[in-house]
Amino acid sequence: MSLNNQDLNERSLQLLKTLVERYIQDGQPVGSRVLSKDSELNLSPATIRNVMADLEDLGLIHSPHTSAGRIPTVSGYRLFVDSLLTVKPLDAKDLAHISQGLSENIDPNNMIGAASRLISELTNMAGVVTLPKRELVYLRHIEFLPLSNNRILVIFVTNEQEVHNKVIHTDKIFTAAELQQAANYLNSLYSGHSLASVKAALLKDLKHDQERTNQAMLDALKIAKLTFESGHQKDDYVLSGETNLMGFSELADRDHLKNLFNAFSQKRDVIHLLDQSMKADGVQIFIGKESGYQAFDQCSLVTSSYSVNDEIVGVLGVIGPTRMAYEKIIPFVDVTAKILGAALNPKTTTP
Amino acid sequence: MSLNNQDLNERSLQLLKTLVERYIQDGQPVGSRVLSKDSELNLSPATIRNVMADLEDLGLIHSPHTSAGRIPTVSGYRLFVDSLLTVKPLDAKDLAHISQGLSENIDPNNMIGAASRLISELTNMAGVVTLPKRELVYLRHIEFLPLSNNRILVIFVTNEQEVHNKVIHTDKIFTAAELQQAANYLNSLYSGHSLASVKAALLKDLKHDQERTNQAMLDALKIAKLTFESGHQKDDYVLSGETNLMGFSELADRDHLKNLFNAFSQKRDVIHLLDQSMKADGVQIFIGKESGYQAFDQCSLVTSSYSVNDEIVGVLGVIGPTRMAYEKIIPFVDVTAKILGAALNPKTTTP
DNA sequence: ATTGGCACTCACCTACCCAGAGTGCTAATT
DNA sequence: AATTAGCACTCTGGGTAGGTGAGTGCCAAT
After folding, report:
1. Is nucleic acid strand D under 7 Å from A147's C-beta?
2. What are the tens digits of pLDDT across the range A135-171?
3. Helix (H) / strand (E) containing A98
């Protein structure tokens, strides 16, 4: 499986490149004749056929049947994307659209949706954007309301104006006044801190102050611990333009579509995939089966993480057929991620 | 277009009924021979052919081509559903599933999602449930947080534990303390009242107390007015099992699916349709083109409004192909709506 | 090493036929 | 007068056959 330079000389790579480009362009298997004309190598079809046979042996291309041209395999795409691709700078008009679509808008929740829609509209494929990770986010305000049966409704605001809520269960029953007091205490203590540091501080405070703090404060800390301790971050994303995918003939058959849209509405697989791209920064690409999820067999996913204050907080990406114009999509995703990150940057700089 | 009894005697109706039933059962155009065997009328195919010709003249059935059987038209389905249908009582197992799925669950937002999923799973079609209308709902708690540039983040809780938030713009700049005071005032004034009555009271109070109230209270009322005055109720629904619809051959072609799923994600048309059924109580049915939306040409929609405290607060329904088992779906939707309404009933009765 | 030539394969399109299902009409039957 | 049997007719769908064009692999010539 290892590809060394002996197997792949300059010429073969050049031919693979034009083959992939050509196939992406018009979706037909590429034969030796077109390739001979398309490439600037001035080789006869016969020669090209020999090279193609080699490329096929290496698993980079294959033909759907004997008398058809060749189409790239996943490895072929991979090699193309990794080393052969000449990315085109982003279209100025698109750039304008993006920065316009992601600037005026103020509400960060709308912002994510706007980004997703923008991506799908400008690429004519599906756009996906994860909600910003909450750990990397500042606590602004917290509030408790009593419910029946030892349950408490927690409302907390992060990052200026993102509202979250959650129901927690406590051993003890608290009155509205007690909860009010607890909230005041916690607000004075933690408001303005990042959630991560709040969590850390909570653990420390609970441990250290076990004896010396008064009961009310201890209770407040315990409630806060319940609030932030687990599963509250349900990873989620906003998907747009899924229907664009129905237009691509390679995805059009019923079962494929059904699997794909099932995956979209169950969200789990998509989240896993996006989580993977969260780790790296820069653009990541999953081609066809590389994703490991059957539903995305015929799809490629081009993602980039986006950051606020130099911390990765989310991922955005394009989902489309494997045969997509990577040289345009890659810079597009890259730039959009950067603009989105900038747009989400809390305006703490304004005095 | 008017159908009187001269045109449609008992026998024709009986035949129409079995024809529709048969077509719903196996999706094939129904010919005179099968109909002759299927109906208990003991008529020869020839006779039946005559009757069918009449039914076709009346626009109740039509044949896709000369040598095929007949299939019901929209009017045919309509007549069938309105006067010929013999509804089957709901399957006991389904009933158990429904009441189980909609009882334990506590969080009302989850409840709507659960109902939607339940519907899609038990019918193998798409389920849709609107979120309960907010006007018919009680205000529990309100809270303001200042944002930059004269903007205020409003958080309010209705019905025990439903959290809503909204950003409003004010002329004047308020401090956090002022907002806290305003919230306290409003909570003491309106907590426990229905949103509708809060709105009414607000207008009245603003008018009457113009002079005699102090400035802080007036400000509080003004902020509240901004909060509740407009567009805050974005009608929304939870849709599940859309992918089930891809399985039906009558909806399977690409363009149809695309239109349909576009309509789902734009939501507008679906909301309009559901709004219509909101007005009546009991089960409502839109067959094929009756909906008036092209995307739903090949679909039927069976809906029922659901009520809390005898007030209609939302709608739930099944979206599927026109050829669906109405005799089962209708009672199913009916019962589910009732159970959902009961499950949403605020537990004010428990002391 | 490259190329022209050539036999071969395969998908795809068209034409065609045939069977089956179902119809409408007419004449016979009840 | 209503019902039915009979019959000619229509249309779909499946199956077969032939032809075309694109493309290949291989061999021998350059």
Report:
1. no
2. 667 889 999 988 877 889 899 998 777 788 888 889 8
3. helix A92-101
